[in-house]
Design a protein that fits this description.
Cofactor: Zn(2+)
Strand content: 15-25%
Subcellular location: Cytoplasm
Pathway: Amino-acid biosynthesis; L-methionine biosynthesis via salvage pathway; L-methionine from S-methyl-5-thio-alpha-D-ribose 1-phosphate: step 2/6
Catalytic activity: 5-(methylsulfanyl)-D-ribulose 1-phosphate = 5-methylsulfanyl-2,3-dioxopentyl phosphate + H2O
Largest sheet: 9 strands, mixed
CATH class: Alpha Beta
Helix content: 25-40%
Radius of gyration: 18 Å
Bound molecules: the ligand CSCCC(=O)C(=O)COP(=O)(O)O, zinc ion
Distance between the termini: 54 Å
InterPro entries: Aldolase_II/adducin_N (IPR001303), Aldolase_II/adducin_N_sf (IPR036409), MethylthioRu-1-P_deHdtase_MtnB (IPR017714), Salvage_MtnB_euk (IPR027514)
CATH architecture: 3-Layer(aba) Sandwich
């Protein structure tokens, strides 16, 4: 028997609205992304699953100013059921759907952060790699509950950019199938898609990935390979 979702009374605002509903969460999370410069110039965005439905932000709007009444409601196949403000659905919709259908994600975001773009450029091939960093522990191995270890090498597949966002769908799917342990796909010269089992995990993993992207760029500038095992480090042991 399906258990009814419990709504915490703390989540209900004075107008009787559930503030943990994606109609409220997505504007809040998009504003957080904007503040981090991950969703400036209308780019980037976020999608959250709630029960049997998938909620997505609109396209081409100021992502830090989205209102609860502007969020799209879709079914599990990504078909739009409600478009309350008659806006255009995000161009990222088919890419967000990859995370739901291939990884059973509960939330997915698309970031245009400069650190993600630079991380996609310091490695010329198909993979971003970094190892021996404490923040690796904040990222799970694929859909499992197993975190990366400090000594593991985190690999993020890189796909080449295309003219239109939706045309990235096939490349992202291919990258996800080739790299089942990754919870992110970098898009060269564009940004990154990151997902998690719920919005909290998508958010924390996104923070860890972005931290590691920034660090890798700096390490490269210092002539240190981000995936190189430590050598000649002689601190107290
Ligand atoms: C300057 S945004 C270019 C288009 C893009 O990359 C993007 O992520 C747009 O997403 P939207 O949700 O606005 O369709
Ligand atoms: Zn984009």
């Amino acid at each position: 028997m399906k258990r009814a979702k419990v709504v915490e009374t703390d989540d209900i605002n004075k107008n009787g609205e559930d503030e943990k509903h994606p109609n409220f969460l997505i504007p809040k999370l998009c504003s957080w992304m904007y503040d981090l410069k991950w969703a400036t110039g209308t780019g980037g965005g976020m999608s959250v699953k709630h029960g049997d439905f998938i909620y997505m932000a609109p396209s081409g709007v100021q992502k830090e100013m989205i209102k609860p009444g502007e969020i799209f409601k879709c079914n599990a196949s990504g078909e739009v059921l409600e478009n309350p403000a008659s806006l255009k659905l995000t161009e990222c919709a088919p890419l967000f759907m990859n995370a739901y259908s291939i990884r059973n994600a509960g939330a997915v975001l698309h970031s245009h952060s400069k650190d993600a773009v630079l991380a996609s450029l310091i490695f010329k091939g198909k993979e971003f790699r970094i190892s021996h960093q404490e923040m690796l522990k904040g990222i799970k191995k694929g859909s499992s509950n197993e975190p990366h270890k400090y000594i593991d090498t985190l690999i993020v597949p890189i796909v080449e950019n295309v003219l239109y966002e939706k045309d990235l769908t096939r490349r992202m799917k291919k990258a996800m199938e080739l790299y089942p342990e990754s919870n992110a796909v970098l898009v060269r010269r564009h940004g990154v898609y990151i997902w998690g089992k719920n919005w909290q995990q998508a958010k924390t993993q996104a923070e860890c990935y972005h931290y590691l992207f920034k660090l890798a760029v700096k390490l490269k500038q210092l002539g240190i390979e981000p995936d190189q095992a430590p050598a000649g480090e002689n601190g107290i042991a």
